[in-house]
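Hey, quick one: can you model this chain's 3D structure?
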Amino acid sequence: MIRSARPDPERLARLHASAFDAPWDAAALAALLAQPGVFAIERPDGFILMRTAADEAEILTLAVQPAARRRGLGRELTAAGLARARTLGAERVFLEVAEDNAPARALYGRLGFTEAGRRPAYYASSDGRRRDAFVLALNFPPPASLP
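Sure thing. Here's the predicted structure for all 147 residues.
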């Protein structure tokens, strides 16, 4: 079962730290969650954080603990986040993904995201290395017309 009620920023920060070498801390996550249009959907082993504004949405982060990867959790969380964004009025969703993050790029590709741009040296790793990000976009199909 996916939970989406009042996430605990401390818990999300622990999950994020297990998934990334340059994690967001609890204060950063709390600040994001306090912003209008931001929501989280979480499971015990991961979460997705998204923001909606007008007819657009953005995946801010998707974190899945390494031991829980390759079991469909990332896809499940992303699908739930996309569904929620759509109910909030989003017609298009964006995200940034590191150019060398092949598993994430494959996941988003399977979900229909396509490359919309590139951000040079967008990500910094703990060793100081900088990596480009691909900007990916997904357009929702128009709602079915009513008879």
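One thing worth noting: Residues 99 and 133 are 5 Å apart (CA to CA).
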